[in-house]
Design goal:
Number of domains: 2
Keywords: Transferase
Shape: globular
GO molecular function, one term: glycosyltransferase activity
CATH topology of the largest domain: Rossmann fold
Protein name: Glycosyl transferase group 1
CATH architecture of the largest domain: 3-Layer(aba) Sandwich
Number of helices: 15
Distance between the termini: 20 Å
Pfam family, one: Glycos_transf_1
Number of strands: 14
Protein backbone atom coordinates (compact mmCIF):
# COMPACT_ATOMS: atom_id res chain seq x y z
CA UNK A 1 0.00 0.00 0.00
CA UNK A 2 1.21 3.53 -0.83
CA UNK A 3 0.25 6.51 1.30
CA UNK A 4 0.98 10.22 0.94
CA UNK A 5 1.49 12.12 4.19
CA UNK A 6 0.39 15.73 3.64
CA UNK A 7 1.72 17.89 6.48
CA UNK A 8 3.14 21.31 7.36
CA UNK A 9 5.42 19.78 10.00
CA UNK A 10 8.00 17.05 9.48
CA UNK A 11 11.69 16.64 10.41
CA UNK A 12 13.83 18.72 8.08
CA UNK A 13 16.93 16.64 8.75
CA UNK A 14 17.92 13.68 10.94
CA UNK A 15 17.51 14.60 14.61
CA UNK A 16 15.08 17.46 13.97
CA UNK A 17 12.21 17.41 16.49
CA UNK A 18 9.66 19.14 14.22
CA UNK A 19 6.93 16.57 13.62
CA UNK A 20 9.25 13.76 14.73
CA UNK A 21 6.26 11.57 15.67
CA UNK A 22 5.26 11.50 11.99
CA UNK A 23 8.68 10.14 11.09
CA UNK A 24 8.23 7.43 13.72
CA UNK A 25 4.83 6.57 12.27
CA UNK A 26 6.27 6.38 8.75
CA UNK A 27 8.99 4.01 9.96
CA UNK A 28 6.47 1.83 11.82
CA UNK A 29 4.16 1.68 8.81
CA UNK A 30 6.99 0.31 6.69
CA UNK A 31 6.86 -2.84 8.81
CA UNK A 32 3.14 -3.08 7.90
CA UNK A 33 3.99 -2.99 4.16
CA UNK A 34 2.88 0.63 3.86
CA UNK A 35 5.19 2.91 1.86
CA UNK A 36 4.98 6.56 2.91
CA UNK A 37 5.98 9.59 0.87
CA UNK A 38 5.79 12.94 2.69
CA UNK A 39 4.58 16.18 1.08
CA UNK A 40 5.67 19.20 3.11
CA UNK A 41 6.29 22.93 2.63
CA UNK A 42 9.60 24.26 1.44
CA UNK A 43 11.86 26.50 3.50
CA UNK A 44 15.25 28.16 3.24
CA UNK A 45 18.02 25.61 2.74
CA UNK A 46 15.76 22.61 2.14
CA UNK A 47 15.92 20.52 -1.04
CA UNK A 48 12.83 20.05 -3.20
CA UNK A 49 13.25 16.28 -2.99
CA UNK A 50 14.99 14.63 -0.09
CA UNK A 51 15.24 11.49 2.02
CA UNK A 52 15.09 11.94 5.80
CA UNK A 53 16.00 8.84 7.80
CA UNK A 54 14.89 6.61 4.96
CA UNK A 55 11.60 8.42 4.24
CA UNK A 56 11.04 10.22 0.94
CA UNK A 57 10.10 13.90 1.30
CA UNK A 58 8.78 16.17 -1.45
CA UNK A 59 8.82 19.87 -0.54
CA UNK A 60 6.74 22.38 -2.42
CA UNK A 61 7.34 26.11 -2.90
CA UNK A 62 4.41 28.26 -1.81
CA UNK A 63 5.73 31.84 -1.67
CA UNK A 64 8.86 33.92 -2.30
CA UNK A 65 11.64 32.53 -0.09
CA UNK A 66 11.48 35.46 2.36
CA UNK A 67 7.85 34.56 3.14
CA UNK A 68 8.32 30.78 3.34
CA UNK A 69 8.52 30.86 7.11
CA UNK A 70 5.11 29.52 8.19
CA UNK A 71 6.02 25.87 8.66
CA UNK A 72 8.10 23.99 11.23
CA UNK A 73 8.04 26.65 13.98
CA UNK A 74 4.70 26.08 15.74
CA UNK A 75 3.85 29.77 15.29
CA UNK A 76 1.75 29.64 12.11
CA UNK A 77 -1.50 30.95 13.62
CA UNK A 78 0.23 33.86 15.37
CA UNK A 79 2.26 34.76 12.27
CA UNK A 80 -0.82 34.74 10.03
CA UNK A 81 -2.73 36.89 12.50
CA UNK A 82 0.07 39.45 12.64
CA UNK A 83 1.07 39.91 9.00
CA UNK A 84 -0.63 40.36 5.65
CA UNK A 85 2.45 38.87 4.04
CA UNK A 86 2.00 35.72 6.11
CA UNK A 87 -1.69 35.58 5.14
CA UNK A 88 -0.74 35.69 1.49
CA UNK A 89 1.83 32.96 2.09
CA UNK A 90 -0.84 30.83 3.76
CA UNK A 91 -3.08 31.05 0.69
CA UNK A 92 -0.07 30.06 -1.40
CA UNK A 93 0.58 27.10 0.91
CA UNK A 94 -3.00 25.83 0.64
CA UNK A 95 -2.95 25.99 -3.16
CA UNK A 96 0.57 24.58 -3.56
CA UNK A 97 -0.20 21.67 -1.23
CA UNK A 98 -3.30 20.82 -3.29
CA UNK A 99 -1.36 20.90 -6.58
CA UNK A 100 1.47 18.83 -5.14
CA UNK A 101 -0.94 16.24 -3.75
CA UNK A 102 -2.54 15.82 -7.15
CA UNK A 103 0.81 15.51 -8.95
CA UNK A 104 2.45 13.16 -6.47
CA UNK A 105 -0.60 10.93 -6.13
CA UNK A 106 -0.30 10.19 -9.84
CA UNK A 107 3.47 9.80 -9.77
CA UNK A 108 3.40 7.58 -6.68
CA UNK A 109 0.23 5.70 -7.71
CA UNK A 110 -0.93 6.31 -4.17
CA UNK A 111 -3.80 4.50 -2.50
CA UNK A 112 -4.55 7.01 0.27
CA UNK A 113 -3.85 10.64 1.17
CA UNK A 114 -3.26 11.08 4.90
CA UNK A 115 -3.50 14.73 5.96
CA UNK A 116 -1.99 15.55 9.34
CA UNK A 117 -3.84 18.42 11.03
CA UNK A 118 -7.14 19.36 9.40
CA UNK A 119 -5.67 22.83 8.89
CA UNK A 120 -3.86 23.56 6.69
CA UNK A 121 -3.28 20.10 5.20
CA UNK A 122 -6.78 18.64 5.47
CA UNK A 123 -8.29 21.76 3.95
CA UNK A 124 -5.80 21.69 1.08
CA UNK A 125 -6.77 18.11 0.34
CA UNK A 126 -10.43 19.13 -0.13
CA UNK A 127 -9.63 21.63 -2.87
CA UNK A 128 -10.95 20.73 -6.33
CA UNK A 129 -8.81 18.10 -8.01
CA UNK A 130 -6.40 17.63 -5.12
CA UNK A 131 -7.35 14.06 -4.27
CA UNK A 132 -7.98 12.83 -7.78
CA UNK A 133 -10.47 10.28 -6.50
CA UNK A 134 -8.28 8.98 -3.66
CA UNK A 135 -9.72 8.49 -0.17
CA UNK A 136 -8.72 11.01 2.49
CA UNK A 137 -7.69 10.18 6.05
CA UNK A 138 -7.30 13.14 8.41
CA UNK A 139 -5.53 13.15 11.78
CA UNK A 140 -5.92 15.93 14.35
CA UNK A 141 -3.03 16.38 16.75
CA UNK A 142 -4.37 19.16 18.96
CA UNK A 143 -3.49 22.66 17.78
CA UNK A 144 -5.86 22.36 14.82
CA UNK A 145 -8.83 21.52 17.04
CA UNK A 146 -7.97 24.40 19.38
CA UNK A 147 -7.91 26.70 16.34
CA UNK A 148 -11.36 25.53 15.27
CA UNK A 149 -12.78 26.00 18.77
CA UNK A 150 -11.42 29.52 19.11
CA UNK A 151 -12.04 30.79 15.56
CA UNK A 152 -15.71 30.80 14.54
CA UNK A 153 -15.04 31.23 10.77
CA UNK A 154 -13.08 27.96 10.89
CA UNK A 155 -16.12 25.88 11.79
CA UNK A 156 -17.65 25.55 8.30
CA UNK A 157 -14.20 24.59 7.06
CA UNK A 158 -14.08 21.76 9.62
CA UNK A 159 -17.45 20.58 8.30
CA UNK A 160 -16.08 20.69 4.74
CA UNK A 161 -13.11 18.51 5.68
CA UNK A 162 -15.38 16.13 7.62
CA UNK A 163 -17.57 15.61 4.55
CA UNK A 164 -14.59 14.63 2.43
CA UNK A 165 -12.72 12.48 4.97
CA UNK A 166 -13.24 8.73 4.75
CA UNK A 167 -11.86 8.44 8.29
CA UNK A 168 -10.86 11.16 10.76
CA UNK A 169 -8.54 10.09 13.58
CA UNK A 170 -7.71 11.92 16.78
CA UNK A 171 -4.80 11.34 19.13
CA UNK A 172 -7.08 11.46 22.19
CA UNK A 173 -10.73 11.02 23.15
CA UNK A 174 -10.87 14.62 24.33
CA UNK A 175 -9.85 15.93 20.90
CA UNK A 176 -12.44 13.72 19.22
CA UNK A 177 -15.18 15.03 21.49
CA UNK A 178 -14.08 18.64 21.02
CA UNK A 179 -14.13 18.27 17.23
CA UNK A 180 -17.53 16.57 17.23
CA UNK A 181 -18.91 19.55 19.13
CA UNK A 182 -17.92 21.68 16.13
CA UNK A 183 -19.16 19.55 13.24
CA UNK A 184 -20.58 16.06 12.60
CA UNK A 185 -17.75 13.58 12.01
CA UNK A 186 -19.29 10.21 11.13
CA UNK A 187 -16.19 8.00 11.16
CA UNK A 188 -14.02 9.28 14.02
CA UNK A 189 -11.45 7.04 15.64
CA UNK A 190 -8.96 7.58 18.47
CA UNK A 191 -5.43 6.45 17.61
CA UNK A 192 -2.40 8.05 19.30
CA UNK A 193 0.93 8.76 17.68
CA UNK A 194 3.67 6.20 18.38
CA UNK A 195 6.55 6.78 20.74
CA UNK A 196 10.11 5.57 20.25
CA UNK A 197 9.83 2.95 22.97
CA UNK A 198 13.28 1.58 22.23
CA UNK A 199 14.82 4.91 23.28
CA UNK A 200 13.08 5.09 26.66
CA UNK A 201 13.79 2.46 29.27
CA UNK A 202 13.84 2.23 33.06
CA UNK A 203 17.06 3.38 34.74
CA UNK A 204 19.34 1.34 36.94
CA UNK A 205 17.45 1.07 40.26
CA UNK A 206 20.63 1.98 42.13
CA UNK A 207 20.71 5.42 40.49
CA UNK A 208 18.95 7.90 42.81
CA UNK A 209 16.12 10.05 41.45
CA UNK A 210 16.18 13.72 42.33
CA UNK A 211 14.01 16.70 41.55
CA UNK A 212 11.02 17.30 39.29
CA UNK A 213 10.99 17.83 35.55
CA UNK A 214 9.03 19.78 32.93
CA UNK A 215 9.54 19.25 29.18
CA UNK A 216 7.79 21.43 26.61
CA UNK A 217 7.39 24.77 24.95
CA UNK A 218 7.29 27.81 27.22
CA UNK A 219 3.94 29.27 26.17
CA UNK A 220 0.65 29.98 27.92
CA UNK A 221 -1.02 26.71 26.92
CA UNK A 222 1.70 24.64 28.59
CA UNK A 223 0.92 26.22 31.98
CA UNK A 224 4.49 26.70 33.21
CA UNK A 225 3.45 29.83 35.13
CA UNK A 226 1.15 27.61 37.21
CA UNK A 227 4.07 25.28 37.85
CA UNK A 228 6.27 28.14 39.08
CA UNK A 229 3.51 29.35 41.41
CA UNK A 230 2.95 25.82 42.70
CA UNK A 231 6.66 25.44 43.43
CA UNK A 232 6.37 28.48 45.71
CA UNK A 233 3.62 26.64 47.65
CA UNK A 234 5.53 23.38 48.12
CA UNK A 235 6.51 22.17 51.56
CA UNK A 236 9.27 19.95 50.18
CA UNK A 237 12.00 22.00 48.56
CA UNK A 238 13.75 20.37 45.64
CA UNK A 239 15.12 21.35 42.25
CA UNK A 240 12.78 21.63 39.26
CA UNK A 241 14.35 21.36 35.80
CA UNK A 242 12.57 23.16 32.95
CA UNK A 243 13.54 21.88 29.51
CA UNK A 244 12.25 24.03 26.67
CA UNK A 245 12.10 27.51 25.23
CA UNK A 246 9.40 29.84 23.99
CA UNK A 247 7.78 33.27 24.17
CA UNK A 248 7.17 33.16 27.95
CA UNK A 249 10.77 32.37 28.91
CA UNK A 250 11.72 35.80 30.27
CA UNK A 251 8.38 36.27 32.02
CA UNK A 252 8.69 32.89 33.73
CA UNK A 253 12.19 33.59 34.96
CA UNK A 254 11.04 36.94 36.33
CA UNK A 255 8.09 35.23 38.02
CA UNK A 256 10.42 32.72 39.68
CA UNK A 257 12.58 35.57 40.97
CA UNK A 258 9.58 37.47 42.34
CA UNK A 259 8.30 34.37 44.17
CA UNK A 260 11.70 33.57 45.65
CA UNK A 261 12.07 30.17 43.93
CA UNK A 262 14.64 31.03 41.24
CA UNK A 263 17.39 29.19 43.15
CA UNK A 264 15.36 25.97 42.98
CA UNK A 265 14.84 26.13 39.21
CA UNK A 266 17.16 24.98 36.47
CA UNK A 267 16.48 26.22 32.95
CA UNK A 268 17.66 24.13 30.00
CA UNK A 269 16.61 25.77 26.68
CA UNK A 270 17.29 22.85 24.35
CA UNK A 271 18.07 19.17 24.70
CA UNK A 272 18.82 16.75 21.87
CA UNK A 273 16.20 14.01 21.56
CA UNK A 274 18.68 11.28 22.46
CA UNK A 275 19.50 13.10 25.73
CA UNK A 276 15.90 13.30 26.98
CA UNK A 277 15.73 9.75 28.38
CA UNK A 278 18.52 10.58 30.80
CA UNK A 279 16.53 13.49 32.23
CA UNK A 280 13.37 11.41 32.57
CA UNK A 281 15.25 8.58 34.26
CA UNK A 282 16.76 10.87 36.91
CA UNK A 283 13.58 12.75 37.84
CA UNK A 284 11.23 11.81 40.67
CA UNK A 285 8.32 12.86 38.46
CA UNK A 286 7.41 14.71 35.28
CA UNK A 287 4.99 17.61 35.78
CA UNK A 288 2.59 18.58 32.94
CA UNK A 289 0.43 21.57 33.94
CA UNK A 290 -0.99 21.98 30.41
CA UNK A 291 -4.57 22.88 29.59
CA UNK A 292 -6.15 21.39 26.50
CA UNK A 293 -3.16 19.21 25.62
CA UNK A 294 -3.94 17.18 22.50
CA UNK A 295 -2.28 14.10 23.97
CA UNK A 296 0.91 14.71 25.95
CA UNK A 297 3.55 12.42 24.42
CA UNK A 298 6.15 13.64 26.92
CA UNK A 299 4.05 11.94 29.57
CA UNK A 300 4.21 8.67 27.64
CA UNK A 301 7.98 9.00 27.28
CA UNK A 302 8.34 9.53 31.03
CA UNK A 303 6.16 6.50 31.78
CA UNK A 304 8.37 4.34 29.56
CA UNK A 305 11.23 5.37 31.87
CA UNK A 306 9.09 4.37 34.88
CA UNK A 307 8.85 8.03 35.89
CA UNK A 308 5.46 8.98 37.36
CA UNK A 309 3.50 11.85 35.83
CA UNK A 310 1.80 14.68 37.72
CA UNK A 311 -0.62 16.49 35.43
CA UNK A 312 -3.74 18.57 35.12
CA UNK A 313 -6.83 16.47 34.44
CA UNK A 314 -7.27 18.22 31.12
CA UNK A 315 -7.41 17.32 27.46
CA UNK A 316 -5.69 14.21 26.22
CA UNK A 317 -3.68 13.83 29.44
CA UNK A 318 -6.62 11.91 30.87
CA UNK A 319 -5.95 9.28 28.16
CA UNK A 320 -2.30 9.03 29.23
CA UNK A 321 -2.37 9.07 33.05
CA UNK A 322 -4.48 6.81 35.27
CA UNK A 323 -4.93 8.80 38.45
CA UNK A 324 -3.45 7.01 41.42
CA UNK A 325 -2.19 4.19 39.21
CA UNK A 326 0.45 5.62 36.86
CA UNK A 327 0.51 9.20 38.12
CA UNK A 328 -1.49 11.89 39.86
CA UNK A 329 -4.10 14.14 38.22
CA UNK A 330 -5.31 17.43 39.73
CA UNK A 331 -7.92 19.94 38.67
CA UNK A 332 -6.59 22.56 36.24
CA UNK A 333 -5.69 25.78 38.03
CA UNK A 334 -5.70 24.28 41.55
CA UNK A 335 -2.21 25.36 42.57
CA UNK A 336 -2.50 24.00 46.09
CA UNK A 337 -3.44 20.56 44.74
CA UNK A 338 -0.59 20.70 42.23
CA UNK A 339 1.90 21.60 44.97
CA UNK A 340 0.50 18.84 47.22
CA UNK A 341 0.86 16.25 44.44
CA UNK A 342 4.47 17.26 43.87
CA UNK A 343 5.15 17.07 47.62
CA UNK A 344 3.46 13.68 47.81
CA UNK A 345 5.66 12.13 45.15
CA UNK A 346 8.79 13.82 46.48
CA UNK A 347 8.14 12.62 50.02
CA UNK A 348 6.92 9.09 49.35
CA UNK A 349 9.51 7.03 47.47
CA UNK A 350 7.49 3.77 47.56
CA UNK A 351 4.48 5.55 46.02
CA UNK A 352 6.62 7.14 43.29
CA UNK A 353 8.18 3.78 42.54
CA UNK A 354 4.79 2.03 42.32
CA UNK A 355 3.34 4.70 40.03
CA UNK A 356 6.36 4.51 37.75
CA UNK A 357 6.43 0.72 37.60
CA UNK A 358 2.78 0.56 36.52
CA UNK A 359 3.25 3.27 33.91
CA UNK A 360 5.58 1.47 31.53
CA UNK A 361 3.26 -1.45 30.61
CA UNK A 362 0.42 1.03 30.04
CA UNK A 363 2.56 3.11 27.70
CA UNK A 364 3.82 0.13 25.72
CA UNK A 365 0.32 -1.27 25.22
CA UNK A 366 -1.27 1.97 24.03
CA UNK A 367 1.56 3.83 22.28
CA UNK A 368 3.93 1.17 20.96
CA UNK A 369 4.89 1.73 17.32
CA UNK A 370 3.78 -1.69 16.10
CA UNK A 371 0.33 -1.39 17.68
CA UNK A 372 -0.26 2.14 16.35
CA UNK A 373 0.97 1.31 12.84
CA UNK A 374 -1.22 -1.78 12.65
CA UNK A 375 -4.27 0.30 13.54
CA UNK A 376 -3.42 2.88 10.87
CA UNK A 377 -2.99 0.14 8.26
CA UNK A 378 -6.53 -0.99 9.13
CA UNK A 379 -7.79 2.60 8.79
CA UNK A 380 -6.22 2.90 5.32
CA UNK A 381 -7.79 -0.37 4.22
CA UNK A 382 -11.17 0.82 5.48
CA UNK A 383 -10.78 4.14 3.65
CA UNK A 384 -9.93 2.38 0.38
CA UNK A 385 -12.89 0.03 0.78
CA UNK A 386 -15.29 2.89 1.45
CA UNK A 387 -14.09 4.73 -1.65
CA UNK A 388 -14.59 1.63 -3.80
CA UNK A 389 -18.06 1.09 -2.35
CA UNK A 390 -19.01 4.69 -3.16
CA UNK A 391 -17.79 4.56 -6.77
Amino acid sequence: MRVLFLTHNFPRHPGDVAGSFLLRLAHALRDQDVHVRVLAPGAEGLAARDVVDGVEVVRYRYAPRTFETLAYTGNMAADVGASWGARGALVGMLLAAARTTRRESRRERADVVHAHWWFPSGLSATMPGALGGLPLVVTSHGSDVRLARSTRPARPLVARVARRAAVWTFVSRWLRDEARAIAPIPDAEVIPMPVAAERFSPPDPSVPREGLLFVGRLNAQKGVADLVRAIARQRVEETVTIIGDGPERDMLRALAESLGVASRMRWVPTVKPDELPRYYARARALVIPSRGEGLGLVGVEAMLCETPVIAYASGGLTDVVRDGETGLLVEPGDLDALAAAMDRVAGDAPLARALGTRGRPDALAAFGAESVARRYREVYERAVASRRAAS
